Amino acid sequence: MKYKYLLYSSVSEIDKINVYDILKVAREENKKFGITGFLICHLGGFYQLIEGKESNINQLYHNISTDERHSDVNMIIVGEREERFFPDWQMGYVRIEEDIFSQWNNIKDKDLVLNEFISTAQSSLQF
Ligand SMILES: Cc1cc2nc3c(=O)[nH]c(=O)nc-3n(C[C@H](O)[C@H](O)[C@H](O)COP(=O)(O)O)c2cc1C
Fold first, then answer.
1. Which pLDDT value is given to residue 1?
2. pTM, full prediction
3. Which of 5, 36, 97, 99 can bridge 44 by disulfide, Cβ–Cβ 3.0-4.6 Å?
C-alpha cells in the first residue's frame, strides 16, 4: 500500500495555546485512523508531517487548516511513499527554542525542506 505524506507550516503564538491538548487529541485520533507523523513546535509556530491513507490525510489536513489555534497554514510538499517516515509515532513532538521560519522559508527546493524536517525530527528522537 502507498501512504500519502504531507508537510505544512503554520503560524501560531505558541505560548498562548496548549500544545499538549493538541497532542493528546492528535495521538488518540491518529491511532484510530492509522495516521502517523511528527510535530515541530518552534517560536514562530509549527511544522508538521502527517502520513497515512490518502482519504484520511485529506480529511485531517482539512480539519487542521480550519483550526483556529494557528493560521497561515501552508502546504510545503505532498507525496506518496511505500513506507512511512515515522512508523512508530502516532505523533512525535519536539519544541525548538528558536524561530526556524527564517531558515526554512528561504529554501526554494521543497525536498530539501523535507530533508531538514526529517533530520531535525529524527535527531530529537535520540534523546
Ligand atoms: C498544529 C496542530 C496540529 C494538529 N495535529 C493533529 C493531528 O495530527 N491529528 C488530529 O486528529 N488532529 C490534529 N489537530 C487538531 C485538528 O485541527 C482538529 O481539532 C481535530 O482533527 C478534530 O477535528 P474535529 O473537531 O473537526 O473533529 C491539530 C491541530 C493543530 C493546531
1. 85
2. 0.96
3. 99
